Amino acid sequence: MIHKDLIIAIDPSLNSTGLCILPVGENTPIAYLTIRPPVGDPHRLKYIYDYYRMVFDTYNQDIRYIAYESQMHQMRYGYQSGTILELAENIGILKLSILSTKFIYPNVSIVRVNPDIIKEYATGSKKATKEDMMDHVDQRHMKSIKSSIPESSVNDVSDAYHLARMVNNRISEDTISDILYEGWF
To answer: N or C terminus: fewer CB in 10 A for the chain?
Structure first.
């Protein structure tokens, strides 16, 4: 089945990035993915970059939106400087991957959303826990998530799932332009 106008939603992480691929205007994602680089691998960032490129190349001209969770809150609150640097590098790799895709497919729009906005959309509370986020995934979709990825990545993919649905909702309400992120192009 060919899908035009896909949303690729990403919950970036150094250890377990969650991805959800949802066709615009539909309720059921077509794929749940996770990026889990080998722990301690000195080539971790290349592994992450290559995986993003593989996903973007796989769905290429069908991608209409790439949405990702901003990690600025994690860089401000209680993280050690080494972790902050690694998070920044990770977001840099994601941006480089997106930028490469955007040059090839200029109709791709970028959405960057703070985690508390995603939490509020999904659960009604900006202070939702990972468990709350997982509890608010449609049970049919949660079953599909659990059968698609390692158990330790379910929470990351759940966040990406809610982000994809939020973007889809904004598209249907014609309010997507409020959250488009074009600042670094």
So the answer is: N
Over residues 72-123, the pLDDT tens digits come to: 554 445 555 556 777 788 888 998 888 888 778 788 999 999 999 999 999 9
What's the distance, CA 129 to chain centroid?
17
Q: What is the largest CA-CA distance in the chain?
A: 46
The answer to whether the beta carbons of residues 16 and 69 sit under 8 Å apart is no
Backbone angles phi, psi at 21, to 5 degrees: -115, 115
Angle, helices 154-172 vs 115-123, to 10°: value is 80
Can you tell me the distance from the alpha carbon of 117 to that of 179, in angstroms, rounded to the nearest whole number? Answer: 11
Number of helices followed by number of strands (H, E) in the chain: 7, 5
* 3-state secondary structure at position 83: helix
* Range of 8-17, 73-82, 154-163 with top mean pLDDT: 154-163
CB contact set of 37 (below 8 Å; sequence gap of 6+): 14, 15, 44, 47, 48
Distance (Å, whole) CA 96 – CA 50 = 11
| Percentage of residues of the chain with pLDDT beyond 70 | 90
The tens digit of pLDDT for each residue in 87-101 reads 788 888 998 888 888
pTM of the full structure: 0.91
Q: How far is CA 7 from CA 79, 96, 144, in A?
A: 30, 18, 18
